[in-house]
Design brief:
45% helix, 78 residues, alpha+beta, Pemi-like Protein 1, Chain: D
């Protein structure tokens, strides 16, 4: 199949390709040996949250302690 790179750096995937892949919104893109490789990726919101927590070095224990602290404060106000 042939597709064109537009002046705005956009490529339209042929309908037969998108139908074969099903509903995909994001792709991982790599260049290997002069070839562009697109891999469908399903982004899950929980993955983004986990990545951010790891980036900030926040552990499950930190989260549990924060929740416990928050609950203590909210019951004191009742």
């Amino acid at each position: 199949m042939l597709t064109k790179l537009t002046s705005q750096n956009r490529i339209t995937l042929p309908l037969s390709v998108t139908e074969a892949l099903g509903p995909v919104e994001y792709f991982e893109i790599m260049v290997e040996g002069g070839q562009v490789i697109l891999t469908p990726v399903k982004i899950q919101r929980s993955d983004a949250v986990r990545e951010k927590l790891a980036e900030l070095n926040i552990t499950e224990q930190d989260v549990a302690e924060a929740v416990a602290w928050s609950r203590e404060g909210s019951t004191a106000q009742l």
